Amino acid sequence: MDKLRIAGGRPLNGRLRVSGAKNSALKILAASLLTEAPLVVGNTPHLHDVTTMIELLGSLGVDVTVDEGMRVQVQAANVHSQRAPYELVKTMRASFLVLGPLLARFGRAEVSLPGGCAIGARPVDQHLKGLQAMGAEIELDGGYVRARTRGRLQGRHIHMDIVTVGGTENLLMAATLADGVTIIDNAAQEPEIVDLAECLIAMGARIRGHGTRSIEIEGVEALHGCTHSVMPDRIEAGTYLVAAAATGGRVHLTHARADILTAALERLEAAGAEVAFGDDWISLDMTGRRPLAVDIETQPHPGFPTDLQAQFMALDCIAEGTSRIRENIFENRFMHVQELNRLGADIELVSASTALVRGVDHLSAAPVMATDLRASSCLVIAALVARGTTVIDRIYHIDRGYETIEEKLGGLGADIARVR
Ligand code: EPZ
């Protein structure tokens, strides 16, 4: 199993290009099921999760071609199965996002329930409730969701009980082909939903209000193909900015959008970083200073993203002062705490959702283990600042969401290698 070996203590310094957003690309690929025409998806990140989605679409009969630049052409003209099997859904929850498109276009779908995962229970009740409101008959059988409709799904006014990214996306895609107008209230506002909506609009969907709490979709009878370029990955961008700040370094990110990272950039400035940005770049300079401790509280967008909580905790570990980190989105997203403490951090879990981080003046290398995607990247940041050489095990988690991380960090001057 691959590991990352990192010799800490070097400030990061340099430029890097941010990849396409994983959490946008996966949904846009799933949206290809809504039409028989080809969808060309550019700026797709080369990640394990993207490969899993391509494998899933292929198993349904979607023709997929990928060119050298990771431009993916997907065409769902010969779909012969509406079944997403447990083997694929269990490895990647985003597989559940084929439910809405399959049901809307073919009137039936059979998708394995994702089950819980390391960061929480993560039920899908809101996805199912919304689809039922639109007229789907749903039964749970043998660990699978079996959904059917008689004729087209029906446009409805749906109020989501909680803000859910995946739930909003499944219903958004399903509603594009429904009969009549669907309104999704209390919708998630994440930028990846806006990217998906813009791709759907380019496919002929009629959508308004994406990026706000209320999305209105007027169903059409059929969608057509389009070419869409995936937005930049805000979480990857945020991760490298935090890594630069934690090491006292500086970084210039290209193909990065500051407008979708406002909450994180504000926290980085509070930590003492000098941040500048333009339309498609962000730069950060820590001018060699030790960061100041910053409190974090995760919220749905435009609040502080849960997907950057672990990385900021790594920064807080070596910051001047004490910080409080509160995780409001997932009930079990603190597994990195024990690993950070193994590196010499002083973190106390004061409740299941709150951690108190007392900044220490240095971390020290130790063998550690990645437990989920963002926890892995926080261990990378901690290893970059720690004294000595840290080996991080189980880094397959990181390959799900960070494209060529060792090359990108190596380009910024980090001493990092992938070892077996
Ligand atoms: C998406 O997950 C992202 N994944 C996650 O990124 C991200 O952390 C999360 O949104 C929040 O921003 C993808 O886009 C593939 P949710 P998703 O539905 O859609 C509860 C990463 O590291 N909930 O917004 O699964 C749920 O349990 C990943 O890249 C219900 O109760 O998140 C959670 O506590 C990790 N019922 C909360 O809502 C439902 O029907 C938010 O989940 C649906 C969700």
Write the layout of secondary structure elements.
Elements: E1 3-7, E2 13-17, H1 22-31, E3 38-42, H2 48-60, E4 63-66, E5 72-75, E6 83-84, H3 86-89, H4 99-106, E7 108-112, H5 125-133, E8 137-141, E9 144-148, E10 157-159, H6 165-176, E11 181-185, H7 191-202, E12 206-208, E13 214-218, E14 226-229, H8 234-246, E15 250-254, H9 262-270, E16 274-278, E17 281-285, E18 296-297, H10 309-317, E19 322-326, H11 336-342, E20 346-351, E21 354-358, E22 368-369, H12 373-385, E23 389-393, H13 396-399, H14 405-411, E24 415-419
Parallel strand pairs: 2-15, 3-14, 6-7, 10-11, 18-19, 22-23
Antiparallel strand pairs: 1-23, 1-24, 3-5, 4-5, 7-9, 8-9, 11-13, 12-13, 15-17, 16-17, 19-21, 20-21
Helix pairs in contact: 1-2, 1-7, 4-6, 5-6, 6-7, 8-10, 8-12, 10-12
Residues 23, 26, 93-94, 120-127, 162, 164-167, 188, 306-307, 329-330, 373-374, 401 line the site of ligand EPZ.
Structural write-up:
- With 420 residues, the protein is of the alpha/beta class.
- It contains 14 helices and 24 strands.
- The strands form six sheets. The protein has a four-stranded mixed sheet with strand order 22-23-1-24.
- The longest helix has 13 residues, at 48-60.
- The radius of gyration is 21 Å and the shape is elongated.
- The mean pLDDT is 96.
- The structure holds ligand EPZ.
- The site of ligand EPZ has 25 residues, from helix 1, helix 5, helix 6 and helix 12.
